[in-house]
Design a protein that fits this description.
Elements: H1 18-26, H2 36-68, H3 71-83, H4 88-91, H5 95-101, H6 107-140, H7 146-152, H8 155-161, H9 165-170, H10 174-181, H11 183-197, H12 203-222, H13 234-268, H14 270-284, H15 289-304, H16 309-346, H17 354-367, H18 373-379, H19 384-399, H20 401-435, H21 441-449, H22 452-465, H23 472-506
Helix pairs in contact: 2-10, 2-11, 2-15, 3-14, 6-8, 6-13, 8-12, 11-12, 13-14, 13-19, 13-20, 14-17, 15-16, 15-18, 16-17, 16-21, 16-23, 17-20, 19-20, 22-23
Length: 509
């Protein structure tokens, strides 16, 4: 890992005395007698508890539903989520991040202006989703998607009504924010599992998405600190658009990337192949959960100290090291144990998806290195690099995963996505090195990989001498050994950082 500048240690952290206290007061952050750094550390615990718990719930939902749904049903759901869900990326242009970043004196007016923009964006999205349904039917050649796609459009108004969550996020009131956000996945889990067991097929997933979104929307509106009113201000619109247009461009490239992948897969490997890509992404997405927790926790604090590059350097390196303690071992472990997951949990009818699950897991582990780099650029109102990086990733997909998917099916795609992940890593390493002098992405990556090496070597060595007939007990024994060895290696390599974090949780300075 690259060395931090001398000023990026010790007192250069987020708790910068009177300055931190004044920032907290300005942003209505209730520190409860703690420092900004300590409050963020405690917030990370709250976010981790909620996010990991709900991510585990989501993963369990995926396993249960996969056990009752056929690959074809999963393929229909995959097309619906890609055809419609990816359009929502165009709407996610950073309005919430911009609202968190701003420091307007009248925060009620600032929220209502942001809500007005979000409502307008959702109205445009709703029209776009309705219009794209017949286009999706023609492109994918699947008439089964019409009814579930039209039903999913009803989620859009609920998304707009959840805007008041931004207020709690800006105030770093993580407990209230996460409690409200937990309603959606909790309700969705109950509905999805109940309907899947009852034989509802892909409608179990559609109904769970609708029920969760609207249950959350109703609860959020009832607890909003500010009334939901329309308030239009041209200066605010210009400010938001200047921040958001690169993120919109980034969303366009992500949309093209996802749509091109699913269209190509549906035409070359069929609905079952689309189902394989969907379930692989569902499993590998769990890799990023802790990173999302830390990034979400730190973003309001990063915005509060966005002009201090020394603080940003320390925050970026340490936060990413913390999240890599989870993301790298999980991604590598998922790749190692993907055959066992399929054979003993999901079912052998998914055997054809093992290779793509393994490759997607490795790609997710690589993508985890520096995963939160966009938060630092957003906080500094420098969003153009995000758009550039995403379009470079699109180009990498165009010359790698897509052609290989056409040429060699899921196996070719598996090779291509690992290459695309390496390209993305190089790009974000370049931008973070340019922002933060002293950061070196190669050293950072090597440090992230080291804790998994002893455990991976032990598992592979054990498999060389194991009997040919593999049992669930043997797989569980290997998994336990992998986890224990990884935990020991992580503690030995990262003990000073872990002690520092634990210190923030023990005391209030």
């Amino acid at each position: 890992m690259g060395q931090l500048p001398p000023e990026a240690s010790g007192a250069a952290g987020l708790d910068v005395g009177i300055e931190a206290s004044s920032v907290a007061a300005q942003r209505q952050i209730d520190l409860q007698g703690d420092t900004l750094r300590g409050h963020a550390a405690r917030g990370a615990i709250v976010n981790t508890a909620f996010t990991v718990g709900l991510a585990t719930l989501s993963a369990l939902r995926g396993l249960v539903v996969a056990a009752f749904l056929s690959p074809g049903d999963y393929g229909v759901w995959g097309i619906v989520t890609i055809a419609l869900g990816t359009l929502t990326w165009l709407k996610q242009v950073g309005f919430s991040e911009k609202y968190v970043q701003q420091d307007e004196p009248d925060q009620e007016a600032a929220f209502q202006q942001a809500f007005t923009l979000e409502l307008a964006a959702n109205a445009l999205l709703l029209l776009a989703l309705v219009a794209v349904v017949p286009v999706a039917v023609a492109v994918y050649g699947q008439h089964k998607i019409v009814a579930p796609a039209l039903a999913m459009v009803a989620i859009v108004p609920a998304m707009a009504l959840q805007t008041p969550i931004w207020i709690f996020y800006r105030r770093m009131d993580f407990l209230r924010q996460r409690t409200l956000q937990a309603i959606d996945p909790a309700v969705g889990f109950v509905v999805a599992v109940a309907l899947a067991v009852a034989g509802a097929g892909y409608w179990a997933l559609v109904a769970s998405a609708l029920a969760g979104a609207w249950a959350s929307a109703i609860a959020v509106v009832r607890r909003s600190p500010y009334p939901l009113r329309l308030r239009w201000d041209r200066a605010t619109v210009r400010d938001y658009m200047g921040f958001s247009w690169p993120l919109f461009a980034s969303g366009v490239s992500l949309l093209i990337m996802a749509q091109a992948t699913v269209i190509t897969a549906s035409r070359t490997v069929g609905l079952a192949g689309v189902g394989a890509l969907t379930i692989a992404n569902a499993f590998s997405g769990y890799t990023h959960r802790v990173d999302e927790v830390i990034t979400a926790t730190l973003y309001p604090a990063i915005c509060a100290v966005k002009d201090r590059l020394d603080v940003l350097a320390e925050t970026f390196v340490k936060s990413n090291r913390l999240t890599l303690m989870w993301g790298m071992p999980f991604g590598v472990g998922l790749a190692l144990f993907a055959p066992d997951l399929v054979h003993f949990v999901v079912g052998r009818r998914w055997d054809f998806a093992v290779t793509v699950i393994e490759a997607t897991a490795i790609g997710a582990a690589i993508q985890h290195v520096g995963f939160n780099w966009t938060a630092f650029h957003r906080a500094r109102d420098e969003t153009r690099p995000i758009a550039v990086a995403t379009w470079i990733s699109l180009a990498a997909y165009a010359i790698g995963p897509i052609p290989l998917l056409i040429a060699d099916g899921l196996r070719g795609y598996s090779i291509g996505i690992i290459g695309a992940a390496l390209v993305a890593l190089a790009v974000r390493g370049y931008y973070m090195q340019r922002m933060l002098a002293g950061f070196r992405v190669l050293r950072h990556t090597l440090r992230a990989v080291m804790p998994t090496l002893p455990a991976t070597a032990a598992v592979l060595a054990a498999r060389l001498v194991e009997p040919d007939h593999r049992t669930p007990a043997l797989a569980v024994a290997e998994l336990v050994a992998y986890l224990v060895l990884t935990a020991i290696a992580t503690w030995l390599l990262e003990r000073p950082l872990l002690d520092e974090v634990l210190g923030y949780l023990r005391r209030r300075r």
